[in-house]
Amino acid sequence: MSDIRLVRSEERDDWSMLVDPPGEMPSGGAEREVFTSADGRFVTGLWSREPDTWSFERPYDEVALILSGSAEVESEDGRLLGLGAGDVMVTPTGSKGTWRIGETITKFYAIYSAGTAGDDTSIRLLGADEPVEWIVLENAPGDENPPGEEWYAYRSSDRRFSTGFWRRAPESGAFVRDYHEIAILLQGDVEVKDKDGVMELEPGDVLVTPAGSRGTWRAKTPVRKFWAVYHE
After folding, report:
1. What letter would DSSP give residue 140?
2. What is the Rg, in whole angstroms, of the alpha carbon atoms belonging to the chain?
3. CA 199 to chain centre
4. What is the CATH topology of the domain spanning 135-230?
5. pTM for this one?
6. In 3D, which of 135, 199, 190 has the Cα closest to residue 164?
7. Could you report the per-residue pLDDT of 58-113, keeping only the tens digit for each?
């Protein structure tokens, strides 16, 4: 599948009720799967849940960007991690902990089923206000736009799965994907054009550009996005 798609996170009509076991309360919740790779190892989506408490053990790598709400996650080693909008939580295969949701929380998630746990199974929290070291990207030949910048939130040990943030000044240009990229726009107004027409993106929208897709990207204002990439 190589069609570009746009999913608006604010539109909830096609979200499904959660079917996982209830927590201590129990509580309601819903989710919207956005993209699954053909091999089934890469899944992204949107997820929301009301206040509740439950324990978990990850059978996969998950990187989640908190979009709204608040929660506390207690790791297996007793650390208390407070989550709020803009934070990123990394729960690798084998990690264990307890969710305690204080205010209905919504997240954008990216999952990679690596198969086995790595050496590091600790939960990691990247706070929205923490200083990071942005990497300046090299422009393609002939691209006279100001270069973009990015930083990695997580990369799997086999380098097939990665997530991170990207930002750039207004610019435009063509793209051709040789990997799957699912990105949620956090800032800016963007126009994406492909063979089927033009899509107008606003903050909160999720853009699906699978391997083989091609189009034209035009940022009308400065842009920041959170992306998840998978090389199938």
Report:
1. P
2. 18
3. 20
4. Jelly Rolls (2.60.120)
5. 0.94
6. 135
7. 999 999 999 999 999 999 999 999 999 999 999 999 999 999 999 999 999 999 99
Give 91's strand partners.
Answer: 62
The phi, psi pair for 220, rounded to 5°, reads -85, -25
Give me the DSSP letters along 124-158.
EEE-TTS---PEEPPPPTT--SPPPEEEEEEE-TT
Span(s) in the chain for CATH 2.60.120.10: 5-126, 135-230
Q: What is the pLDDT of residue 1?
A: 47
> Domain 5-126: which CATH class?
mainly beta
